[in-house]
Amino acid sequence: MRKHPETDLVPYLRGELPPAERERVARHLDECPDCRQDTDQLRELLGELSRSVAAPPAVNWARYRAELHQKLDARRERRAWWWRPLPLALATSMAGVLLFIAVWGGRQVPTAGDPVTFEEAAIARNLGLLEQYQVVERLDLLEEDLDLMSDLDGLAAGRQG
């Protein structure tokens, strides 16, 4: 059995199919009573729809343009007197801010000595190490001594074992 042209029935009734497609659907309708019945029902439905929809009213374009101009003029008049210079003031302010950022934005605040990280500052504040700075400067020597002592301990353990 050949495929039924259900999606082509409305375009067929409206005359929107190309000639070859129109002929194919017509041949099928001659052979298939179900599709012929569907086509008759669609024809009635399309006719009822076309009768039920009223024709749109004629548009008076001159009157429409006049109303549009009137509404636009009324909108311009409603703006407050202070609104007109506002865009100029905003643009001037924005230019000033951008100039300030351009001049001062690239400069860094000078700091004394090496920068301290947040972690270092937090540890120093908690331990009070900055009050005894000479001890902090000597911690690297203590670390070397600890390494040397662990090496000596390892050698001593090797001799005893």
Reconstruct the topology from this structure.
Blueprint (H helix, E strand, L loop, with lengths): L8 H6 L4 H13 L1 H20 L8 H18 L7 H19 L13 H10 L5 H5 L1 H22 L1
Helix pairs in contact: 2-3
Q: Count of DSSP E strands?
A: 0
Overall SS class: mainly alpha
Overall 3D shape = elongated
Sheet with most strands: none
Q: What is the mean pLDDT?
A: 77
Distance between the termini: 99 Å
Which stretches are poorly predicted, pLDDT < 50 over at least 5 residues?
A: none
Residues in helices, as a percent range: over 70%
**Rg (CA only):** 46 Å
State the helix count.
Answer: 8
Q: What key phrases describe this protein's structure?
A:
161 residues; mainly alpha
Describe the structure.
The protein has 161 residues and is mainly alpha-helical. Among the domains are: 6-52, no CATH class; 123-160. It has helices at 9-14, 19-31, 33-52, 61-78, 86-104, 118-127, 133-137, 139-160. The relative contact order is 0.04.
Short characterization:
Helices cover 70% and strands 0% of the residues.
